[in-house]
Design a protein that fits this description.
Elements: E1 3-5, H1 16-20, E2 26-28, E3 33-35, E4 55-57, H2 64-74, H3 90-93
Antiparallel strand pairs: 1-4, 2-3
Length: 108
């Protein structure tokens, strides 16, 4: 089992989860984070830390469609190991639905 980052992270990119991750399995895109499922140890400490509630266990039915996206971008984006400021308009985007069209494929 692993955890995945979902659509709620797009255009928010809070990094509270990064700060608590014991194995540094988060990767940073321009406007989203992802988890490398091959590196995640399923400890679950990241999930409650996310202000956008964007992290789900892959056993959640909603998480399955995000597993491929997390795997793909973890291979392309750089690892992030320290907390940084969220995106400037994160509060405005937190909780907004339909954000997948806003996902930037660019690395941070």
């Amino acid at each position: 089992m692993t955890f995945v980052v979902t659509e709620n992270c797009i255009r928010c990119k809070y990094t509270d989860c990064v700060e608590v991750c014991p194995v540094d399995c988060f990767y940073e895109g321009e406007n989203m984070l992802v988890i490398n499922p091959d590196e995640c140890i399923d400890c679950g400490v990241c999930e409650p830390e996310c202000p956008a509630e964007a992290i789900l266990a892959d056993t959640d039915p909603e998480a399955q469609k995000w597993l491929d996206l997390n795997t793909r971008y973890a291979a392309l984006w750089p690892v992030i190991t320290e907390k940084i400021d969220a995106l400037p308009d994160a509060e405005e985007w937190n909780g907004v639905g339909g954000k997948l069209e806003h996902l930037s494929e660019k690395a941070a």
